[in-house]
Amino acid sequence: MKKSVFSAYISAMLINLLLIFVSCSLPTVSFADTIATSEKKFITILDNYTFRDQKKYNFLKIFNSNKFKSNIQVSPFIDCRAHIKDIMCLVAPSDDPSGGIYREKNKRSCLEGGKEYAKYFEELYDNYPTLLQRMFCSLTTIYIEQRFFGTAYAGLEHDEKGNVIGGVLGIRQSVLDNNLSLATWASWKEQLSFGGIINSYDIKPELPIILSTSNHNSNDNSHISTSVNDFLYFVVTHEFGHIFDFSNNLNKTKNCHQSADGTNNSCEMEVDSWGAISWKTENQPKNINDFPGRNGLCFYTCNGKYLDLAAVNQIYSDLNKTDFISTYSSVNPYDDFADSLAYYLLAKNINSSYVIDTKTGSQYDVIQKLQSTTWTMKYQYLDKFISREDIIYPNAQTGP
Ligand SMILES: [Zn+2]
Q1: Are residues 135 and 223 both part of a single domain?
Q2: pLDDT reported for residue 328
Q3: Which of 113, 125, 164, 239 has the fewest Cβ atoms within 10 angstroms?
Q4: Which H or E run contains 185?
């Protein structure tokens, strides 16, 4: 699609995002108006995400997969690399007091300088497998957020009628400006639940850290270049994982029940869904995968209440016995898929090593776990997923 047509189209539409943050921070905004404008009700609000501080977070998910699926088509795969510079958008913090940074009825205005960030995504594109390259065609916007409490986010964008018209990616500007490595960013993020420093990317020496290096595997991908930022590779893969999940209903649910006060909605995971591997419901892992420290993990939403340092050793020892690949993936089935896809491709395509050093005398090799029998079902699921020929991308090109 020509740029002018594309731009005019997206400026006219209502931005509604289904989303889950990478670095999952679920927003405190209310999406009630989204529901009001969508009588088709193929989306619904879940208000069941309760962190340790008892704050409740809303997030949306696909409710009726048939209706949802009928509204999206496979992207025709135009030149997805050339599309990147056209969708870059540097944005000031939203003035939405509830924190709805990405979702506004009037499109957020793009500031000067956004296109300068295209190079990060073009480099990523050059190093991505086709599966992920194609996703860039389906994005309507890549927001570079001047201020944002998480690292990145992704979601689906809808028109006024509630039809999915594409995907959206957003990322905190400073993570790009700081040219973070995966080791630095992952250490920083891992520390947040234990009292790490939220406002800078400094690492506390007494808290767990991630030891990680990456080397490109030129055998797998002939187009691979000599360098790629492994942090960006991981984070954008995680975000694209959410879009794949939403678009293909990988975490299909059934038997949803509302709590007595109507605020809490909990669904069981459908047989054969991704989530059914590890989860009973969207909120509750199977017993074998649960562990006492899990509910205390908070990352970007700790509000001053952190996990006790004395619990570090136990948490990673417990986590190691589950089939969750990371602390982050143990938070909900959606981040379980997104994080799992990111680690899987990190290992497969850029030969990354990734070891958690608890700083209490233990180390856990995440890549080793990924290739172990504990993780066989998930590994096989992802093998199968990436080789599917019917993967659905949210279509950014179904406009008038
Ligand atoms: Zn996420």
Answers
A1: no
A2: 95
A3: 113
A4: helix 182-191
Measured in Å, residue 329 CA sits from the centre of ligand 1 at 8
Digit-coded pLDDT (tens) for 192-245: 999 999 889 999 999 999 999 987 654 444 444 457 899 999 999 999 999 999
Which of 148, 176, 204 delimits the end of a domain? 176
CA of 328 to the centre of ligand 1 (A): 8
The pTM for the full model equals 0.80
Instruction: For residue 334, report the distance from its CA to the centre of ligand 1, in Å.
Output: 7
Q: 151 and 30 in one domain? A: yes
For the chain, how many structural domains are there in total? 2
Instruction: Give pLDDT, residue 68.
Output: 39
Residue 25 shares a structural domain with residue 158: yes
Measured in Å, residue 2 CA sits from the centre of ligand 1 at: 31
How far apart are the CA of 150 and the centre of ligand 1, in A? 10
Cα–Cα distance between 170 and 256 in angstroms, integer?
A: 30
Pick the closest to residue 173 from 139, 195, 150 (CA basis): 150
Domain span at residue 10 reads: 3-176
Strands 88-91 and 139-145, sheet pairing: parallel
Q: Which of 292, 296, 385 is nearest to 340 (CA)?
A: 385
Q: Are residues 90 and 191 in the same domain?
A: no
Mapped onto helix, strand or coil, the DSSP state of residue 172 is strand
Tell which of 176, 191, 223 closes a domain. Answer: 176
Shared domain check, 196 and 60: no
pLDDT of residue 77: 56
Q: Report the share of the chain in percent with pLDDT over 70.
A: 72
The rounded Å distance from CA 400 to ligand 1 centre is 32
* Whether residue 228 sits in one domain with residue 345: yes
> Does residue 149 sit in the same domain as residue 204?
no
Could you give the 3-state DSSP secondary structure of residue 356? strand
Average pLDDT, the chain: 78
pLDDT digits 0-9 by tens, 312-336: 999 999 999 999 999 999 999 999 9
pLDDT in tens, 10-30: 322 333 344 444 433 333 222
pLDDT confidence of residue 28? 25
